[in-house]
Amino acid sequence: MGLPMLPVPPPFRARSARLAVSVLFFANGALVASIVPRLPAIKATLGLSNAELGAAVAAMPVGGLIAGGLVGMLIARFGSGRAACSGGVLYCVALAGLGFAPSWLALAAVYFVMGVFDAAMDASMNTHGLVVQRAYGRSILQGFHGTWSLGGMAAGALGAAAAGMGVPVAAHLAVVGLVLALAILATSGPLIRAKAADAPIPGGGAPGPIERIHARNAPRLMRILLPVAMLGVMTAIAQATASTWSAVYLTESLGLSAGVAAIAFVLYAASMTAGRLVNDRFVDRLGAIAMVRIGALAAAVGLALAIAAGPLHLPALAFVGFAAIGLGTSPMFPIMIAAAGTRPGIPAGYGVALAAWLVRIGMVISPALIGVAADSAGLGAAFGIPLVIVVVMIPLAPVLAGVRWIPAPPREMPAPA
To answer: CA-to-CA distance for 226 and 385, rounded, in angstroms?
Structure first.
């Protein structure tokens, strides 16, 4: 990807740091997914309605939005490695406390706190992943995100098993929080602590490095990072089609049972995980722009198949389509992180944190956007929104991938005779 080189540690230290960052990504994915299988038990224990449970869960992205814009300053002050470990351990403590929430208000408060620490850990570990990637001199960030997906799948399976065996929610989440906190603490030693690691990258025609966020440089930051963040926002809308609406679409439009319809999400998650585990070699070989275009094309084909499955009454088309959405969108978010964290003159922590903060806004509105359209025209027609979005990604790939397009100079014309 042509990543700038900064002072880096010896190879053996880089390998240890890579393993440590992989543990952070695995733990974050596990923290996010551990709660989902236990939501029915939490709802029943507290006697919550669907609206009350939804409002409590919504406090988590609200906490992430409030904290996300400030994480860059935290990384600049303490370093990305220390911020990632501290945020991760506090996230584990909050997860353990979730099972002991005695009321709706306490549950919402814990979710809010979890959102704060998730935003801190997410931006910090991605920033440190870029630090380790520079040490390698090739793309490895895709693999980190693949490890995140593996953590989510493992924790989701463990949570489902705990729910099936009747393990109390408090005991389950406390054990998971303790184990993951110990794993995160074990990673703190191998992480790269070089002060230059999170420094602004020079060059690229930057008018001067941004050392800290001020009101006067906010317009410049937004001008540089907003096009890159749009890749994440557009990806979030496409992914919400599969993650949020696949099972609903298959049950309502194709008449499948809830158990069979859930296979669509499994296929989506598995294809995304598989893609992220192998995407690094293709990013190095083809480049970020080509990967965005290929991924957008694959996602567009997947969405078209899912849309066609309804009127044709062919569930197999929908299953293939949702798997293609997962595979096609798998490289997008890591490419956005790499682009945001390597802008000349901007510290990686600021770039990653602000881009991720903008994407969180898209993640909040994307399910509602499709839901409103579905109420008006049907879910199959609503899928036309993400289809148009991923098609638009193809010509906009250079801008979205953070690569400035510079036209070639015109050839000199021969002087007239």
So the answer is: 21
Do 232 and 167 fall into the same domain? no
Q: Which of 138, 144, 140, 149 is nearest to 124 (CA)?
A: 144
96-125 CB burial, b ≥16 within 10 A, e <16: bbbbebeebeebbbbbbbbbbbbbbbbbbb
- First and final C-alpha spacing in the chain: 46
Q: Please state which of the ranges 136-140, 214-218, 290-294, 320-324 shows the lowest mean pLDDT.
A: 214-218
Lowest mean pLDDT among 94-103, 221-230, 316-325: 221-230
Task: Note whether 133 and 235 are same-domain residues.
Answer: no
Q: Supply the CATH number for residue 40's domain.
A: 1.20.1250.20
239 CB-near residues (< 8 Å, 6+ apart): 325, 326, 329, 366
pLDDT at 50 over 80: no
pTM for this prediction: 0.80
pLDDT of residue 214: 52
363-369: long-range contacts, CB 8 A cutoff, minimum separation 24: 363/61, 363/236, 363/240, 364/61, 364/65, 366/233, 366/236, 366/237, 366/239, 366/240, 367/240, 367/244, 367/245, 369/237
Rounded to whole angstroms, the Cα distance separating 253 from 313 reads 8
Question: Is 410 a domain residue?
Answer: no
Whether 390 and 241 have beta carbons less than 8 Å apart is answered as no
Residues 242 and 354 in one domain: yes
